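Input sequence (290 aa), recorded before submission:
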Amino acid sequence: GKHVALDIASFKVRAFRSDAPAHFRPSVACKYGYKAVLSRLLSVWAVGLGDPSFLHVVLDGGRFPLKSATHGNRLSGKTYDERIAEALALDKQGQDDKASALYKELAFVACPPSVDAWIIAHCRKYGVTVHVAPCEADSMCGRLALDGDVDAVISYDGDLGAYKGVTHLIVADSGKQGVYWNVFPERDIIGCQVGKLDFRGWTSYDYRTVCAAAGTDYLKRVHNMGWATLVTTLNALSKEHAFGSSELREAFVGKLTEKNSAQAADHQIENYSATLWASFAAFEDPPGLP
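Predicted structure, token format:
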């Protein structure tokens, strides 16, 4: 009886990877096994929710510049077309295994548009609700949750729990196929001791502060400032500013901006403070469909 958003990007990539070598090789007939994998995934969730329309499949519509740069790095600085040409050249040389690895790498960066087209057609045929986000699917999932259109979000991306409104995150285990973890940030993280990370006394506002600073689709994180350091930094500043206050966030931004300024030459991050505030806004009021 619940409405659930499915951030399908990582699921479709994993489903398509085994098809990628045959898809990109012009002389090989592709069986497109991803269709069977994804149809089973969608069927299980639709039946479990009690009505296909309660399942909201969310597709990426585009990429923010920072996310595009990240994917560019995954292609070793080359364009998508250059990597395809490289794989085809390896095929001609008889190096099938190396070529197949490249084809699978390309699938990870961007599945062919035909995969999204099939997902949309399949969802429409069986009554599954489908959304194409204006940019990243995770922001759209956050928007749907904040607006009360869905009760939970299914994803491989644990960062989705940082979006305001996402009170229930169902995280697919990347190491164990078919295993999901129920995560309720307000219950399981905020106000708790999680391993060595101390979130006691925190509010959801503080949690989003650190999530944004840890690196998102909008902002590069500061070098050598991972979760442990960020959590420790916020806790230290809380001795002077109350948890949940804008003053604590401002002091935290000041610390990170100071740290970033020393690294600007290395990382070429401009206007860090302004971009960080924009990242906060995206978590607290995620962009949705116009």
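Checked by second reader. The first helix runs from residue 9 to 16.
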